[in-house]
Amino acid sequence: MRVIGLIAFNTFRQTLRQRLYYNVAIFGVGMLILSMVMGNITFGYPDRVVRSIGLSGVCISLDLIALLVGVGLIHEEIDKKTLFVVLARPVGRVRYVAGRYLGLVSALGLALFGLTGVYFLTLTAAGGSITWPDVVAVAAALPEAMLLGGIGLVLSAFSTPTLSSGIGFGLWIAAATSDDLVRLTAKAEPSVRALTTAVYYALPSLERLNFRQAAIYGQHLGVWEVVGALSYGAVYSVFLVALASLILSRREMI
Questions:
Q1: Rounded to an integer, what distance in angstroms lies between the CA atom of residue 188 and that of residue 180?
Q2: Which of 72, 186, 219, 239 could bridge across to 161 with cysteines, CB 3.0–4.6 Å?
C-alpha cells in the first residue's frame, strides 16, 4: 500500500501541474457563472436554469479532465522511459496502474470539491436551496468521471494519447447514449437489437449515474437507488483498472 500511495501522490501532483487541469476547471466555473446569468434573465424558475446548466458544467468539466488526463497516464511514462525506472524496482505493474489511477481520482475529487462550492454558491445566489437531489447529482459526477478515467487508463496502456482521445470520446458518447439506443431500437430488426444490447452490456451505462433531472425537477431519490448506482460505478471502475493492469502486464516494452 505504501508503494501505491507514493505513486498516487506523484500522479496527483503531476495532474495538478498540467495546464489542461486548470483550463477545464475554468471552463466549469464559466459554465456555472453562465447558469447564474441565464437564471437572472429567465422568467420563472431561475433555480432550475442554474441547476440545468450548472450541473451539466460540473459533470462535463470533470469528465473532460478524467478522459484527457487518463489517456496519457501510462503512455507518457513509457514514452519518457520513466516507467522502466519504476518497474526496475520492486513495483508490480498492477500496483503501478492502481497508484496512477488513485492519483487521478484524487485530482478529480479536488476539482469536484471546488466546482461543487461554486455551484452551491451560484444556486444560492439565484434564490434556490440546496436539496438532497442536488447533493446526489454532484456526488455522482465523481464515479461517472472515474469510469471515463478508467477507460482512458485502459486506452493509455496500449495506444497513443492522440488516438486514445478520439476512441475515448467515441466511447464516452456511446456510454452516455446506450440506454437511449436500446429504447430506440426496441422495434428494429433482431440483428440491430442484438448489436445495441451487446453495446449496452459491454460499455458502462453513464445514465445510471445521472441524477441531474431529479435535482432539476425536485424528484424523490431513494437511498438504495443512490447506493446501487454509486456501487455500480465503483465496481466497474475496479474492473477497468484490472483490465488496464492486464494489458500492461502482457505488453512488451523495449
A1: 13
A2: 72
Rounded-to-integer distance, Cα 165 and Cα 146, Å = 16
Rounded to the nearest 5°, which phi and psi values hold at 47? -65, -30
pLDDT tens for 95-106 read 888 888 999 999
Q: How far apart are CA 34 and CA 54, in angstroms?
A: 8
* 76 pLDDT tier (thresholds 50, 70, 90): confident
**pLDDT value, residue 67:** 92
CA dihedral 8, 9, 14, 16 (to 10 degrees): 110
Return phi, psi of residue 2, to 5°.
Answer: -65, -40
Q: Where along the chain do its domains lie?
A: 2-249
Please give the helix or strand (H or E) that residue 16 lies within, else none. Answer: helix 2-17
**Number of residues written out for the chain:** 254
The three three-digit cell numbers of residue 38, written as one number: 441565464
> Cα 88 to the chain's mean position, in Å?
31
149-204 per-position pLDDT tens digit: 999 999 988 888 888 889 999 888 888 887 777 777 777 777 777 877 787 778 88
Q: Which three cell numbers stand for residue 115?
A: 466546482
Using DSSP's 3-state secondary structure scheme, residue 154 falls into helix
Q: Measure the CA angle with vertex 93, ends 61 and 161; round to 5°.
A: 40
Helix (H) or strand (E) holding 136: helix 132-139
